[in-house]
Design goal:
Layout: H1 5-18, H2 29-37, H3 40-55, H4 59-88, H5 102-122
Keywords: Membrane, Transmembrane, Transmembrane helix
Length: about 120
Amino acid sequence: MREFWPPMLAYCLIVLFAFPWAGEPALPLAARLALALLPVVPMILVLRACARMILRSDELEQRLALQALAAATVLVGSVSFAIGFVDSARILEVPGSSLLLVLPATIGTWGLSRWWLGRRLRT
């Protein structure tokens, strides 16, 4: 967890204090682009920490993590895909910023799936 929390804290601080400046029209385009992409760097480090934690775990934990990730990917991917078609058909207008929710939704669904699989294993 020592590998997880520092980049997660950095991500939170960047999203709260640096990212809002990305929409400032007075800044040069390069600066706005850098500010817009800045939260990606610590999030990659967070995901790396999660992957390393899974790789250090035993076979059962790895299997449960993989099954949970598969379930999360199928669920969130299917919902995102369906929303894309609804938006393309102009039935419901979905803002592009909703793409920011795909990774957090996948991670959250992964966590819930992992909890459910672990609970199911114990019964």
